[in-house]
Amino acid sequence: MGDWWQRNIMEPGKLPLLLALSAFVLTFVVTRVITRLIRAGKGPFGNVKAGGVHIHHVVPGVVLTVIGGFCAVAGGRYGFGSALAAVVFGIGAGLVLDEFALILHLDDVYWTEAGRKSVEVVVLTAALVGLVLAGFTPFGVDGMSQEELQDRANVIATVAGNFFFSLLALAKGKARLAIFGVIVPVIALIGAVRLARPGSPWARRFYARRPRARARSRLRAYHHDRRWSGPRRVVQDWIGGRPDPR
């Protein structure tokens, strides 16, 4: 374990990334717990106001993100300063993306259906950063054997193939499959070979003169959304809280 940590975390310089990801996830979890307590009227917490203006936590999040980012750029690759900057950046990013929907809509949609976008963005961001963190870095590690070099070359080729299939899935309007397909190759392949969703760039380009393909695409999208929208909402409600009724 110690040798793996040294070779795959310390030598490639991934410790700041690990700290930033940990701070990001922990900040999001703590923030959601606090906001749900405030919403329920429990605990000692309350909304922060200044002169009658509700100060959303995206504001200190932006400040911390800027401070952490500039300190990370100004500092070296190693040392306590870079580690601290990574933690500050992760905290700020967690606060900002927890209110991503507010930034997107320029409205306080935190507890509405539109506010679910914040949860989706946080989950996808954590997944992507986790991919970078968990993946073996082909550069920056010293003293590798020929077998290890070959293994890492195979990893690079595999990732390149996954990325190609993920781009196809993205063109077919399947953003979630495209993102998670970078991590799990089968997911990217499924997204690439199946019918495109209506309105996607692929459907507009290749289904324009194929009415049967357009009809099959709409029917499959309808059945897919009907089947998975419920479970997806349950997971989102569990993570971020149930939106207010309309």
From TrEMBL:
Q: Which residues cross the membrane?
A: 55-76, 83-106, 121-141, 153-171, 177-196
Q: What is this protein called?
A: Integral membrane protein
Name the keywords, alphabetized: Membrane, Transmembrane, Transmembrane helix
